């Protein structure tokens, strides 16, 4: 919907992004439906493209948009796990790899590792 509205306005992605005050890459993700804009960004987008918010959000179709029917990740997780996930999402790839190694060490071990730990304890 945003792509069609932008084309009707005769704008490039770069021009549309500039008008709504976001980076071109961010606008591209918005236009492809890979991310939802904040409310202020959505309002600027609607003004810049002269389009109603409902079609942009997928509310004008007879079937709900896919993102509306998806289960919210971590919704049933304890608050501590949700906080940890938010932090993990901010990590750089090398940090994520290091955290993965630490997490594996923290998990209960089986087989040879378990016997290795019991030998150390005695």
Instruction: Supply the helix-strand structural class.
Output: mainly alpha
Integer average pLDDT? 82
Name the poorly predicted regions: none
How much of the sequence is in beta strands? under 5%
Compute the separation of the termini in Å.
68 Å
What is the share of helical residues? 55-70%
Number of helices: 9
Largest sheet: none
DSSP strand count = 0
Explain what the structure shows:
This protein is mainly α and 122 residues long. 65% of the residues lie in helices and 0% in strands. The chain has helices spanning 2-9, 13-20, 24-32, 39-49, 53-57, 66-69, 79-88, 93-106, 112-121. Helix 2 packs across helix 3 (24-32). The longest helix is centred in the C-terminal third of the chain and has 14 residues, at 93-106. The mean pLDDT is 82.
